[in-house]
Amino acid sequence: MQPLMEQQRILVVDDERDLCDILVFNLQAAGYHAEAAYSAEAALQLIGDGNRSDGKPFDLLLLDVMMPGMSGFELAASLKADGYSRHLPIIFLTAKDTEDDTLQGFSLGADDYVTKPFSIREVMARVKAVLSRIATSDSSMHEREVCFGGLVIHPANKTVAVDGDPIALTRTEYDLLYLLLTRRGEVFSRQQLLDSVWPQDVIVSERTVDVNVARLRKKLNRYAACLVSKTGFGYSFEAREP
To answer: What is the pTM of this model?
Structure first.
């Protein structure tokens, strides 16, 4: 086993215990450190309270949507609103496969969406792809701050601040803003943004880009107008007075 793989920790959250345990077994066999939580509430405690068996944070969350009590969507929303866990990558595992459900998942910052029934090989391939993309994205980010007026991106700790106040972004929102701001004035089509920010093996519609841009604008406050929509072309970040 490679040392990097041994360091990658995955939490599987599903009320179907047999399925959950099968996923954990296969992930461990592939060299990952995998744990199980059989409810969203149990997962929230593991992630938020630092009760992981080895005391270290998780690198990825495999999350079922339809569970008794707190749903997977509700758990994801809670995690993305928290400064500690907002960059935790999420792959949804669910029988809900309508476009609206998929868009809701990605609007919550999901990195991938796998519908049931699925093969273990498919899930393992998605896990590898997401972790590989995140590792590549992280290694390519420069440590130098990226600034535009009072809008500041801190690549070292993946945080963003507006006029000194930190704002909570999902990983997708962060990557989207980083790309547009570092290449200010350049127009990206929706497909180019999908190819650059979302995993290559994830099938999503261009509406997903619109959803994430809309959410990002709300969070940027007085810099929202800098995220410009070019009708028929796509999006760009332009120097506009707040």
So the answer is: 0.59
